[in-house]
């Protein structure tokens, strides 16, 4: 085995090294022995046969969901703005297709940008643990790059491999810190690991050598990092758009020979690399794909959203929905604010999703209070719950003014361990409670294939004809056996 | 969320600043910065990193095109012109440095020139000067929001943090955005900030400036189209504060009548004489002085007689590189710059070529260099010093110390030497009409009718140069 050979060679190098100043040897790790180099090697060496059937199955679900949310996202204002920006600042280009816009094509990185914006525009895209939105940062770049490849398009299995590399790298990087395991406070995770994932995926698809793969990651690190303050604003979707775009750019620059730090993932005292984005950081090398490597997606499934809002909202929505059912059972069939005296939410402490009176759709998607009240009134939260009219409903506003929020000590700000409780005190004195530990769509209670397809049909159907919608379901379902991903690329508009 | 109105004040200030607020002092200093920046950008257009970025950027199409400095035939979409020109400016680490530490001009000027060439309003030289100074001022303000910024950086490379904000502010000014749009330009730019220091001393470092210019311009354009971000981006710790461990922002106010106090008037910039990290300038001046002592005293002076060279420098990991293997590392190596100075009695652009770096005599000298970091040597460009002590085989010792190198803000380059640096740099790429034209236009910038004329001079290459270069391997 080559890896064991390498292990025997290393001590010899160390002995020779002693002829230099011993201090020099200690300071400089063997360039092959770094965490960064191990990532470069993994990306360059991994092959389709390293993907297990479970990983293939789960990642195809992610691809389908991501395309769907991207398609419905192409109806949003922020997407329109991003698209116009690209079309005005640059010119239309014949290369990579734009979600849902027949005939619109852009340069690959710009297509990755707008499609990434679309994907995250309604906060409808997938969420993982540790927390990030992995697919939106990777899929648009892989699609755009596939469109760019001149002669033969990648096979479906090469496509899926690149996609999974992009997901895997994100998962691995997040495990370098404890900070990443909790709901973020400083940097928005997709802007940190998403760019790296996109770079990795594109490096894989471009078949870069291990050194170029390392440099792609290092170049991407200089393009990573956006503050949490822009979450819950119209700029948030650009975090995913830029992650996708800039990761692709990093891979393209690396393919042209641009070099960057060979230690970007390693922790070097006094010179921050990727650890600049974290308070605690302990990197681990990535083993060779031939050494019994297991993809993280095998062990940690993905969460899919049932409605377009921050993941945390799904807990309170499910809890509030169960109270709605009780209320409706008790009374006239609908819920009216006049019945409600007080609403108490018990949720984890997280400033950016604690918004008593959201003023925009973006804020509403990041408001425990708004989502609880919507679900309490309507029994569910849907795409329609965030329209301008819906935001201003008198009933919603009335309920919002009666909400209190508590942060129990046993409710951590962590998507794996949190819960949501809704306690409604009725005017006539009854107290109704609802609690959700695991919402339907969470990785512990995943959407069935049927539910996932239903979500996809609703989303894609907003923009495509039904033959195209069904066509995409079929193509993605059989993606790993597809000889040529052209069939996928051609159906996105 | 606590909103102290700081971001709002920046938006209002960027909008309110007008050409009447420009003072003679700030005009004079910023023109020097512009000239120096153009010069280093021109010579930078012959580097490998620039060429890689140029080839990449040429794959983008656009209707509007802006000049690429030092190229007569090539134009690019404005954001990519800003990108490659910014890269050129920082490609050899030859551009200006400020205190608190950043490279302010390279993040701003390329964006403004690219933008100016496409604006139907055809901005004047005075408009350019105003926008440029807005970009510099905003950077200076942001750097003062933390104590961390006052020292040589360890986490994020400052141009990638404040540079993109300066570019956004400057572009917003040139685009005449409303106060609200200026706020959002800053907010959008903040999501493009922050590159880790690990990529300093690599080929990617120049991209930090290139991207600052490009993405700041883009942020302003997106804001102009109505994109919004967090209007309290500078106020809150989860906003711009994420880039600093300590963060204490304050408002920016422009008096309606009366003078505006530009930071550039109080705090000048440093212009480099050597294409290397600023810290190297101290060690080179000290090494040259120590060498002179050795030469004056010793009869038959022979470098082979050097037993040891001790450098006393501030602690800064990313410029402590005993055996650099690339030009980028060499520009960030106390040891390399001291050794070059001792060997050649000067450090110039050519000191960093592969041939020069591989000289056995240099490598031998490098192996004799020892670095010490005395406690009183503070890692701050305002406070540091360098000492070089040469020990000979005969047991003698020649030491010299540099507190303030020539070119530092405490000892600025004379106008003659500044123009000279520019001429040498620009002549490597432009014909003499181009060189002189730029000196003339920048020198009279406040009277220039259309600042885009700079673009036409920046393209006046001497055909010999361009032909010669295209034959060389990249």
From TrEMBL, chain A:
Subunit structure and binding partners: Homodimer.
Organism taxonomic ancestry: Eukaryota, Metazoa, Chordata, Craniata, Vertebrata
Principal location listed in the UniProt entry: mitochondrion
EC number: 4.1.1.6
Top-rank taxon, per record: Eukaryota
Record Pfam families: MmgE_PrpD_C, MmgE_PrpD_N
Span of domain MmgE/PrpD N-terminal: 41-272
Family to which the UniProt record says this protein belongs: Belongs to the PrpD family.
Biological role stated in the UniProt entry: Cis-aconitate decarboxylase that catalyzes production of itaconate and is involved in the inhibition of the inflammatory response. Acts as a negative regulator of the Toll-like receptors (TLRs)-mediated inflammatory innate response by stimulating the tumor necrosis factor alpha-induced protein TNFAIP3 expression via reactive oxygen species (ROS) in LPS-tolerized macrophages.
GO annotation terms (biological process): inflammatory response; innate immune response; positive regulation of antimicrobial humoral response; tolerance induction to lipopolysaccharide
One Gene Ontology term of the molecular function aspect: protein homodimerization activity
Residue span(s) of domain MmgE/PrpD C-terminal: 307-474
Protein's UniProt name: Cis-aconitate decarboxylase
InterPro entries given in the database record: MmgE/PrpD_sf, MmgE/PrpD_sf_1, MmgE/PrpD_sf_2, MmgE_PrpD, MmgE_PrpD_C, MmgE_PrpD_N
Subcellular location: Mitochondrion
A GO cellular-component term linked to this record: mitochondrion
Reactions that this protein is recorded to catalyse: cis-aconitate + H(+) = itaconate + CO2
Record key words, sorted: Antimicrobial, Immunity, Inflammatory response, Innate immunity, Lyase, Mitochondrion
UniProtKB/TrEMBL annotation, chain B:
Pfam families according to UniProt: MmgE_PrpD_C, MmgE_PrpD_N
Keyword Endoplasmic reticulum: no
Domain MmgE/PrpD N-terminal: 10-244
Every MmgE/PrpD C-terminal domain range: 275-440
GO terms for cellular component: mitochondrion
Subcellular location: Mitochondrion
Entry keywords, A to Z: Antimicrobial, Immunity, Inflammatory response, Innate immunity, Lyase, Mitochondrion
Any single biological process term in GO: innate immune response
Principal subcellular localisation of the protein: mitochondrion
EC number: 4.1.1.6
Catalysis: reaction(s): cis-aconitate + H(+) = itaconate + CO2
Origin: domain of life: Eukaryota
MF-aspect GO terms: aconitate decarboxylase activity; protein homodimerization activity
SUPFAM superfamilies: 2-methylcitrate dehydratase PrpD
InterPro entries, sorted: MmgE/PrpD_sf, MmgE/PrpD_sf_1, MmgE/PrpD_sf_2, MmgE_PrpD, MmgE_PrpD_C, MmgE_PrpD_N
Oligomeric and partner information: Homodimer.
PANTHER family on file: 2-METHYLCITRATE DEHYDRATASE-RELATED (PTHR16943), CIS-ACONITATE DECARBOXYLASE (PTHR16943:SF11)
Chain's role: Cis-aconitate decarboxylase that catalyzes production of itaconate and is involved in the inhibition of the inflammatory response. Acts as a negative regulator of the Toll-like receptors (TLRs)-mediated inflammatory innate response by stimulating the tumor necrosis factor alpha-induced protein TNFAIP3 expression via reactive oxygen species (ROS) in LPS-tolerized macrophages.
Family: Belongs to the PrpD family.
UniProt protein name: Cis-aconitate decarboxylase
Species of provenance: Champsocephalus esox (pike icefish)
């Amino acid at each position: 085995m080559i890896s064991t050979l390498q292990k025997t060679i290393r001590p010899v190098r160390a002995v020779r090294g002693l002829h230099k100043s011993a201090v020099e040897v200690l300071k400089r790790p063997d360039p092959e022995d770094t965490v960064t180099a191990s990532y470069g090697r993994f990306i360059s060496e991994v092959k389709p046969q390293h993907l297990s059937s479970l990983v293939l199955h789960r990642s195809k679900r992610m691809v389908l969901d991501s395309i769907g949310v991207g398609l419905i996202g192409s109806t949003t204002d922020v997407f329109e703005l991003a698209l116009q920006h690209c079309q005005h600042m640059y010119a239309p280009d014949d290369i990579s297709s734009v979600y849902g816009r027949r005939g619109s094509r852009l340069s690959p990185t710009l297509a990755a940008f707008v499609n990434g914006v679309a994907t995250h525009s309604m906060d409808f895209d997938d969420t993982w643990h540790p927390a990030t939105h992995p697919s939106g940062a990777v899929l648009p770049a892989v699609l755009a790059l596939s469109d760019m490849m001149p002669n033969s398009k990648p096979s479906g299995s090469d496509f899926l491999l690149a996609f999974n590399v992009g997901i895997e790298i994100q998962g691995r990087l997040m495990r370098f810190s404890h900070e990443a395991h909790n709901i973020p406070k400083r940097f928005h995770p997709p802007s940190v690991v998403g760019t790296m994932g996109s770079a990795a995926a594109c490096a894989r698809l471009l078949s870069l050598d291990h050194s170029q793969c390392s440099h792609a990651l290092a170049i991407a690190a200089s393009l990573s990092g956006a503050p949490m303050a822009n979450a819950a604003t119209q700029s948030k979707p650009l975090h995913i758009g830029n992650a996708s775009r800039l990761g692709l750019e990093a891979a393209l620059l690396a393919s042209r020979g641009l070099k960057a730090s060979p230690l970007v993932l390693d922790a070097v005292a006094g010179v921050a690399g990727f650890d600049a984005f974290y308070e605690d950081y302990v990197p681990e090398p990535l083993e060779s794909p031939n050494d019994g490597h297991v993809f993280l997606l095998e062990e940690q499934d993905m969460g899919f959203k049932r409605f377009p809002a921050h993941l945390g909202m799904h807990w309170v929505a499910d809890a509030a929905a169960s109270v709605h059912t009780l209320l409706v059972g008790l009374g006239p069939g609908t819920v009216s604010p006049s019945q409600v005296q007080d609403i108490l939410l018990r949720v984890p402490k997280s400033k950016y999703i604690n918004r008593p009176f959201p003023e925009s759709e973006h804020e509403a998607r990041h408001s425990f209070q708004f989502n609880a009240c919507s679900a309490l009134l309507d029994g569910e939260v849907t795409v329609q719950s965030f329209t301008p009219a819906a935001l201003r409903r008198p009933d919603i506003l009335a309920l919002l003014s009666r909400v209190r929020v508590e942060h129990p000590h046993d409710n951590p700000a962590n998507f794996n361990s949190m819960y949501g409780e809704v306690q409604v005190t009725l005017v006539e004195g009854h107290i109704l409670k609802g609690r959700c530990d695991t919402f339907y769509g969470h990785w512990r209670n995943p959407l069935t294939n049927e539910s996932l397809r239903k979500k996809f049909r609703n989303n894609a159907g907003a923009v495509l004809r039904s033959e195209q919608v069904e066509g995409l379901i079929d193509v993605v379902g059989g993606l790993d056996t597809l000889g040529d991903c052209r069939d996928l690329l051609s159906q996105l508009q | 969320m606590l909103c102290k109105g700081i971001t709002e004040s920046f938006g209002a200030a960027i909008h309110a600043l007008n050409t009447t607020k420009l003072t003679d002092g700030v005009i004079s200093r910023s023109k020097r910065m512009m000239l120096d920046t153009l010069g280093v950008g021109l010579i930078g257009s012959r580097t490998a990193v620039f060429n890689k970025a140029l080839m990449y950027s040429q794959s983008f199409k656009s209707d509007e095109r802006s000049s690429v400095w030092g190229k007569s035939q090539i134009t690019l979409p404005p954001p990519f012109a800003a990108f490659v020109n910014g890269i050129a400016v920082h490609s050899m680490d030859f551009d200006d440095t400020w205190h608190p530490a950043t490279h302010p001009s390279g993040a701003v000027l390329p964006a403004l020139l690219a933008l100016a060439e496409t604006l139907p309003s055809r901005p004047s030289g005075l408009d350019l000067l105003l926008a440029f100074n807005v970009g510099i001022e905003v950077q200076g303000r942001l750097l003062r929001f933390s104590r961390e910024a006052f020292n040589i950086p360890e986490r994020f490379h400052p141009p990638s943090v404040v540079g993109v904000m300066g570019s956004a502010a400057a572009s917003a000014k040139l685009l005449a955005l409303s106060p609200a749009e200026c706020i959002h330009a800053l907010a959008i730019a903040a999501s493009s900030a922050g590159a880790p220091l690990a990529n300093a001393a690599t080929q990617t470092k120049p991209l930090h400036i290139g991207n600052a210019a490009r993405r700041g311009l883009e942020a302003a354009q997106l804001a102009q189209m109505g994109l919004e971000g967090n209007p309290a981006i500078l106020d809150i710790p989860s906003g711009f504060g994420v880039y600093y461990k300590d963060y204490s922002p304050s408002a920016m106010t422009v008096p309606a009548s009366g003078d505006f106090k530009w930071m550039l008037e109080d705090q000048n910039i440093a212009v480099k004489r050597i294409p290397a990290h600023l810290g190297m300038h101290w060690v080179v001046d000290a090494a040259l002085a120590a060498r002179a002592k050795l030469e004056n005293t010793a009869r038959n002076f022979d470098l082979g007689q050097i037993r040891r060279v001790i450098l006393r420098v501030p602690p800064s990991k990313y410029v402590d590189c005993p055996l650099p293997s690339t030009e980028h590392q060499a520009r960030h190596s106390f040891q390399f710059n001291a050794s070059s100075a001792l060997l050649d009695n000067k450090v110039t652009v050519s000191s960093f070529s592969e041939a020069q770096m591989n000289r056995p005599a240099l490598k031998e000298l490098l192996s004799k260099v020892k670095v010490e970091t005395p406690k009183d040597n503070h890692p701050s460009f305002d406070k540091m010093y360098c000492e070089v002590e040469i020990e000979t085989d005969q047991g003698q010792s020649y030491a010299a110390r540099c507190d303030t190198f020539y070119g530092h803000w405490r000892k600025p380059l004379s106008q003659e030497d500044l123009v000279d640096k520019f001429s040498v740099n620009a002549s490597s790429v432009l014909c003499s009409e181009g060189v002189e034209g730029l000196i003339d236009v920048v020198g009279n910038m406040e009277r220039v009718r259309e600042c885009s004329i700079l673009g036409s001079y920046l393209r006046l290459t001497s055909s010999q140069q361009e032909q010669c270069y295209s034959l060389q391997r990249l």
